[in-house]
TrEMBL record:
An annotated Gene Ontology molecular function: iron ion binding
Keywords noted in UniProt: Heme, Iron, Metal-binding, Monooxygenase, Oxidoreductase
Cofactor dependence: heme
Organism this protein belongs to: Talaromyces stipitatus (strain ATCC 10500 / CBS 375.48 / QM 6759 / NRRL 1006)
Gene3D superfamilies documented for this protein: Cytochrome P450 (1.10.630.10)
Protein name per its UniProtKB record: Cytochrome P450 monooxygenase, putative
InterPro entries, alphabetized: Cyt_P450, Cyt_P450_E_grp-IV, Cyt_P450_sf, Cytochrome_P450_monoxygenase
CDD domains: cytochrome_P450
Family membership noted in the UniProt record: Belongs to the cytochrome P450 family.
Keyword Nucleus: no
Amino acid sequence: MPSQTFYLLGEDVSTAKTIEVNPSQSLEDLKLLIAAHFAITDPNGIGFLGKDAVLTETSEVTTAPGPVPITIDGHAVRDPPSPRKLPFVGNFFEVYPDHLGNHQRLFDQYGPVIKTDNMGRITYQTNDPAIAAIALAESDFFTKKINEAHPLYALKNASAGVFLGDTDTEEWRVAHKFLPPALGPKAVRHYAPTMQKTVEDAFKVLDHLDEQGEAWNVYYYMLKLGSQAVGKLTLGLDFQHFTSPSAPVHEMVHSIAEMLSLNKKVTSKGDWYNKLPFGDPKRLRDLKARIEEMVGESIEVASRGGVEDLPLQDAALKADNMVDYAIRATDNKGQKLPQSSLVWALVVATGAGFTTTSSLLSWLIYGLCTYEGMQDRLLQELIDHGFDENTQITAELTDKLDFLDKYIKETQRRHNPSFQPGRTAKCDLILPGGYKLPKDAVIIPALHHIHNNPEIWDNPFRFNPDRWDTEEVKNRHKAAYIPFATGQRMCIGFNFALQEIKVFLPKLVYRYKFTREGDGPIEYDPMFQLIRPNNLYVRAERRVKWPPRSDQSTTA
Ligand code: HEM
C-alpha cells in the first residue's frame, strides 16, 4: 500500500510519521486514520495543507509531496494560552478570590481553553461545549482519574468513597451498576410523598419566623431542608431539622461537612502529617469512624425488618430509601452490592445530594427575590393548574408545569452550584482548535462559563426563562447545558434532585411571598466546592390571598 508522511503543523517537521494510506479510501476515513495516529480527539477538524491550497481528496493527499502538514480547525497545534505567572504564586491572583468572574475574563481574553498555575497546581479549563463533551466522555482520551492536579484529589485519599474514585476500578463499576437504578426517573417518583412531607414539616418553622417578622439566612435553612430530604431518602434517617427554628444541624450533616474540610487540610500536607496521632488527622479518623458507625446503624435498622431480596429494578420501585434498596437489590447473578462499598457509596451519595440541592434551592429563592415577575408567574402557573395547599404533588402534575421547568433550567444555567468536574488526559492529545494537552493533564469543563458563554447563549447574563422556548436554545450543542455534567461519571442523582426541587419550590411559592432583606452584593465562598450564596437573607411572608385563575380573570 502507498504511504505518505504527515506532521502536525506547529510541530517540528522531524516529528513527521509515515503512514500507509489506501488511495481509494474516503477523506473521512483518512481523517479517522490520522486522528488515531496523532491522538486527535475530533477527526472532523483535520485539514491537509498542500503547497498552495487545502487538499480535499485522498488522492491529492497521497500524491502531494510530503511531509503533509495537518491543521486542526484551520489552526496549527499550540499550547493552551496562559496568563503571565508571578514567582511562587503563579496565576493565583489572576484567578482568586473571584474565580467565577476571573475565569470569565480569562476566557474573554485568551479563548476557549486556558491553562492556569495556582501555586503549582496546573489545570486547564474550557468554556467550549464541544471540548467539554469530549473530556466528559469516558474514552481512549479522557477518564475520571483523580491525580494530584484534580480538584477532588484532597478528598480522594481520606474518604475513598467509590464515587470519589477513578472510573477504571472494579469498585466503581460495581457501585455504578447497583446505585443508579435507585435514582432512576421511575424510582424517584415514589419518593414524592416523602419529599412533600419534608417541606411541609419545615412550614411551622418558616411560619414562626414570619410571625416574628424575622429574615433568615437562605443557605442555612436550605441546607437543613435539603439534607433533611436526602437523609430520609438515602439513609432512612430523620434529622429533626424542623422541630424548632433553632434545631441543630444533625451530627451526620455537620460530620460530612467537617470531614470534607478536614480532608482538604490533611491531604494538602505530606503523608507524614496524616499519620500524626493528634490534631486534625486524628479528628478526621475519628469522624470517619463515627460516620461509618452511623451509616452502619442505618443499615442494621433497615435489615432488621426482614426485607425480601429483589431484582435491581423492582427493589428500586419498592424500597423506602437507598439503604433499604441497597440491602435488597440483587443483580441477575444473585449478587449484591458488597458491604465494603455500601457504606461509603451511601455517604458520598448523601453528601453529594445535600450540598448540591441546598445550594440550588438557595439560588432558586435568590431568583424569586431578584428577577422581576418570576414569583408571580410561578404562582400563576400553580393556580392555573388547580394547585392549593392540599395538593399532593406528583410527577404527572409537575410534568405539566412548563414555566417551573424553564425557571429551574434558567437558574441552573445562570447560577449553577457545581462548577468543576475534572477529567484527566490518558495520553498526549490534541483538542479541537489545535490545543495540545499532555498526558495526565486535568481539564475542567467550566460549567458556569459554558452556561454563560456568549458564543452560545444570546445575551447570556440576562436571566430569561423564556429563552428555553426558542429554537436557538432547543438546537444548542448537547453539552451547552450540563448542570449535572454528562457521560458515564455524570450525576447519578439528577432525577432525585429535580424532583425534589419540583416538589419544594411550588409548595414554598404557594405558601409564601419571598422578599430580600438588604440589597448589598451577594457573596460566594471561593474556597468551597460549590457555589452558594453565603449572605442571602429573605423574609418569607405567608400569603393571605392568591390571584384568580388566568381563564377566570380573562372572562371577568
Ligand atoms: C442540584 C443538585 C445536583 C447537582 C447540580 C449535581 C451535580 C453533579 C455533578 C456536576 C456531578 C459530576 C461530577 C464530576 O463529573 O466530577 C455529580 C456527580 C454525582 N452526584 Fe450529583 N448533583 C446534584 C444532586 C445529587 C443528588 C441529589 C445525589 C444523590 C442522591 C447526587 C449524587 C451524585 C453522585 C453519587 C455523583 C458521583 C457519580 C460518579 O462519580 O460516578 N447528586 N453531581
